[in-house]
Amino acid sequence: xxxxxxxxxxxxxxxxxxxxxxxxxxxxxxxxxxxxxxxxxxxxxxxxxxxxxxxxxxxxxxxxxxxxxxxxxxxxxxxxxxxxxxxxxxxxxxxxxxxxxxxxxxxxxxxxxxxxxxxxxxxxxxxxxxxxxxxxxxxxxxxxxxxxxxxxxxxxxxxxxxxxxxxxxxxxxxxxxxxxxxxxxxxxxxxxxxxxxxxxxxxxxx
Length: 206
Known about the structure:
This is WbqC family protein. There is one protein chain. This protein is of the alpha/beta class. Helix content is 30%, strand content 14%. It has one domain (2-201). It has six helices and eight strands. Helix 3 packs antiparallel against helix 4. The longest helix is centred in the middle third of the chain and has 15 residues, at 113-127.
């Protein structure tokens, strides 16, 4: 069982609900990069708002293949993101256990957005205890039998419009109202090993 997806930055919970039962993810890095998408954006919950973390890229306006797109390290985005994550989740029950694995990826100063996202995805799958292999999608047309969800999980439309994710609430750090479909790190830091069960409960019944 394999699924074809784009490569997102610390993807939303919906993404992991979609891939949780697969054996392999084929990552499409040959597509043209699109702005204002999950490819370089991720959402976390701060004390009084949902914050969007955005990675600056070089030449994202042109038709650049996602796999060739470089992160703009001239901008001091990395400290902003790490501080934001620490501010949001520093007091979460599983922060001290999981954050070092994620921080380690940032400290590598990776040039290509696809490589950076891929390393973070690998860490997230490990922390979720999901045994799923990652491969880059080849240039030949993929097998039409494969589950292809490219273009489905969009930051510009609500998950409610799609047939993937039905939020199973869990204890978040701030506020009384549950905020669904944040970055997977919100789930990991808040409930730790229980994350996998929450993903299973969040599957929309077709």
